[in-house]
Amino acid sequence: MRVASGQGFWGDWQEAPKLQVRRGPIEYLMLDYLAEITMSILEKQRERDPAAGYARDFVDLVLDLAPDLVSKGIRVVSNAGGVNPDACRDALVQRLTDVDTVRPLRIATVRGDDLMSRLDEVLAAGHELRNMETGEPLSTVRERVTAANAYMGAGPILEALRQEADVVVTGRSTDTALTYAPLIHEFGWEADDWNRIAAGVVAGHINECGAQACGGNTLFRWREVDLVEPGYPIIEASADGSFVVTKHASLGGRVNWASVTEQLVYEMGDPTEYITPDCVADFSTIQLEDLGGDRVRVTGVEGRPRPELLKVSIAYRGGYKATGMLTYSYPDAYEKAVAADRVLRGRLDRLGLEFDEIRTEYVGAGACHGPLAGSPDPSVPEVELRISVRGDDRARVERFTRELAPLILAGPPTVTGFAAGRPRVHEVMAYWPALIEREVVESVVRVEVTEA
Question: Could you tell me the domains of the chain?
């Protein structure tokens, strides 16, 4: 059973899923669009337009691929629904009527992750939704909350597949479920078959970042990887839970022990406890065998029972921010940038402008490496001064944006990079991770299957 990855994030290479469908055999195409920051962006879009809040390019992609999906029997599982799966479904249904296919596509919508309309009810019932990092109850920021979405697992996706959906559109599904739900469905794994489901979780983790498992963003011999037309990972899974990571032979990229290992440790905390809604996978049990020819076998994965609680991703208004940049050139570029920062901060103090945070970076002099880099290199020929402020008062942040341009003539010499004008003020959407009892979320899950 082949589950191909076609999207690692919202904004990923749009040609990848087309190549996955058209360059070789697959049974499922998983498309992962969501991250915590993505949910915040989509929520802001829905605030402006009730019909928005989903990955719009997903609709165009499905329209393009619809004849292939029907003729080849390929099913799509995606979390492109974002914070508004119904709007995504409506757009698909409306526009698919103009696409010539031998039969209509069946579109399934998974709902239930969105807790926003029930948030006060949930809090009143005693679910404090404490921040997993600080321990604070959500009540401290309740008035600023804009979105609350629980991470759902395989259950609703399985229901959609049982109803013969061709395209499954979810909201905040856990990324790995987009891969392991099809495997559970096809192989008939029991809900408590922890080892096999854990193997599916590992497969999903390899798939979820797209080309990153196929030589993209790799450190290992990166100069040797052809990424003009890269392959994206394909999981060739067996009923016993073992699987092979590969790619279409006609595409670039590379699959070997290094590319798979780099992806396995991506976003990794305790490797013995990779927690999902459907099991806890022990990544320390993974065994890799490089078969050559862009094929890596994965075996030996062990798992444990699923957690009692589900994770909730909450977004709330966290104030405002602005970032300005100026470039200083040779000679003494770094010294000039430091002087400009000192001048700017002095002027902000003189104006009485206080912020929650002011951050200065000297790009080109070692800023990307942080404090571990040691002293910046003073001999670099050019340095970009990047200074950011964050605070609750929009007017103060706006005032900061007017203080950067004066540095052009009333600041150190040899400055450039100011043609774009004043920095823009952006609202900060802050992230609040929390846990909630499973039954609170599962009781509101609904699945609809609609024929286009």
Answer: 2-113+151-307 (no CATH), 317-432 (3.30.70.2750)
